[in-house]
Amino acid sequence: MAAMAASETTGGSRLGTTLREGERVTPLELFFDLVFVLAITQCTALMAHHPTWSGLAQGLLVLGMLWWAWTGYSWLTSVIDPEEGAVRLVIFGAMAALLLVSLCVPEAFGGLALAFALIYGVVRSAQIALFMLASPDDDALRHSVLGLAASTAVAVGLLATASLFDGLAQGALWALALFLDMAGPYFFGSEGWKLVPGHFAERHGLIVIIALGESIVAIGVGASHSLTLAIGTAAVLGVALTAAMWWIYFDIVAIVAGRRLAEAEVGRTQNEMARDSYSYMHLLMVARIVLVALGLKTTIGHTDEHLHAVPAFALLGGLAIYLFGHVAFRYRHVHSVNRQRLLLGIVLLVLVPVATEVPALVPVTIANLLIWAMIVYETRLYGEGRHEVRRPQTAET
Fold first, then answer.
1. Residues in CB range of 193: below 8 A, 6 or more apart
2. Whole-number average pLDDT of the chain
3. Which residues on neighbouring strands pair with residue 306, listed in sequence order?
């Protein structure tokens, strides 16, 4: 009904800065996000094929660039209706380009480096073009979009230049491209952006689920079409660990964060909260979920062997940084520190060297015991307050 009312207000077209107030994530947005599933899978595969520190860095840099492209579309669909006929076609084109970018990921630092840069530029250009079309009478939004276009052009140029190099120089150019692109909103201000808090928070929650799904996929891939007692045990432990990551985010955090965003003062305050806690901090969460997926994939394939340093860090260090991301996320919203998550993250980092000295099943078992113990503690600690938070809010009359 909200979409119909908005269409009537704008003469049947939603290609304008009419906020999608009251709307939920559309089927087309979910369809678009499915392409991002392949991107995440490809990043995990890149790191798995190059289980070194440099391979880990490459996978995270690629993920960062792809994330920044995805989160741009999450901002875009707060001000335009992706189901609008012309917009729908552009979104389909962006999906095709994102698919091609994903196919380039295994060789993004090799033979397909230039192709990755150029096609990535197409993905970003489609988003910017739609933003420009949606802001003909909104000078503040247009100013912000022009700033984004500038940082995008710089990033794509650096990626193209990086294709001429290899090794450390190539990685440094990638890191610079990612930093300058993501820093664009700081350089050009945040006042002009528009968003619908409920839609924005839900969209990011769904992408967390997609990232967690990669952990499940990694378990299946790691099993290599075989099932033994050890593999079955590792698979169950992997699912339990993934479920714990889901619980940590969706039990309370996602609910409170969404409400805080909705209650924030519209304009710069709300925009910067969305930018910091969702566009930036959620990258940390998604990246660490991908790292844990890499660790689980290695564990399933080598249950009776010791983990090497990289997969051990991916498993325990990734989980630790996931917890640190939650600590930062909470601090940004309520200005308090979750001590138990901070402490557990530190403990997991300390255990990384230990994980290289014992069979792979041991660290994933320990990680499960520790994180589920923390969940039980938090559930008891929050008590009735947790039920109050989770109770559906009733509309005020």
1. 75, 141, 144, 185, 271, 274, 275
2. 87
3. 359
Show the domain range for 290.
195-383
Domain termination residue (choose one: 194, 219, 242): 194
* Spatial CA neighbour of 334 closest among 260, 284, 384, 385: 260
Does residue 66 surpass a pLDDT of 70?
A: yes
Roughly how many angstroms between the first and final C-alpha of the chain, as a whole number?
19
Distance CA 113, CA 40 (A): 18
Dump pLDDT digits (tens) for 313-326: 999 999 999 999 99
Look at residue 20 in the predicted model and tell me its pLDDT. 54
Q: pTM of the predicted model, to two decimals?
A: 0.89
- Tally of domains within the chain: 2
Between 85 and 334, the higher pLDDT residue: 334
Residue 80 three-state SS: strand
213 & 155 share domain: no
Whether 395 is in a domain gets the answer no
Is pLDDT at 4 greater than 70 in this prediction?
Answer: no
Single-letter amino acid, residue 72: G
Question: What does the pLDDT look like over 351-360, one tens digit per residue?
Answer: 999 999 999 9
Yes or no: say if 101 and 116 are a contact pair by the CB < 8 Å rule. yes
Burial 249-283 (b: 16+ CB within 10 A, else e): bebbbbbebbbbbeebeeeeebbbbbbbbbbbbbb
Where among 177, 194, 211 does a domain terminate?
194
Residue 70 confidence (pLDDT): 94
Q: How far is CA 237 from the centre of its chain?
A: 23
The pair of structure tokens assigned to 274 is 């969305």
Higher-scoring residue by pLDDT: 288, 96:
96
What b/e sequence results for 137-151 when a residue is b if at least 16 CB atoms lie within 10 Å of its CB, and e otherwise? ebeebbebbebbbeb
Q: Which amino acid is at 139?
A: D
Under DSSP, is residue 82 helix (H, G, I), strand (E, B) or coil?
Answer: coil
- The answer as to whether 115 is a domain residue is yes
